[in-house]
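Re: weekly structure request thread

Next one in the queue (172 aa):
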Amino acid sequence: MALRATALVFEDVKSKALLERIHLIGPSAANVLITGETGTGKELIARHLHALSVGTNISKEILSDEQAREHSIHPLLAQRRSWKAFSTRILEPETLGLLLEAARWAPSCMNEQPWSFIVATKQNPSQFNGLLGCLHEFNVQWAQHAAALILSVSRLTFASNGESGTATLSTM
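Done, posted below.
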């Protein structure tokens, strides 16, 4: 049985500063990547940010996109969103093939394109459910509605020289 923390405690100065930042970012349309060691409370922070997010209507004060950004960026980037809702429409094999081919040839360190993709579509329920079962339960709630799930895997060493390809981790 796994135990899961359910409360955030912000007593020290650094934690209080983090809480202020969470309350600033939470209501914005910003995408957030939370990193850290196991057991440091990343999931609690993520749940707190989600509770403050625009989509949950919990936030009292919502910052505009311009207020949330420190620097002006291209409108295509500013309007980008990470959606958690998907169409139930079937994804055509030709469309999926084009997307995967573009991803396969994306720029990479030493031009090695060290990635491969595991793809499961709704047309094959056993494969789709198998890949869905690899996800964290929080992500299953929205990913189960996607037409396809794609898992990206990558070599950790360069094919050309056998050396560690730690840059690979940052390109995925």
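The chain has two domains: 13-78, 93-171. The helical segments are 13-25, 42-52, 65-68, 75-78, 93-104, 125-132, 137-143, 167-171.
Next request, please.
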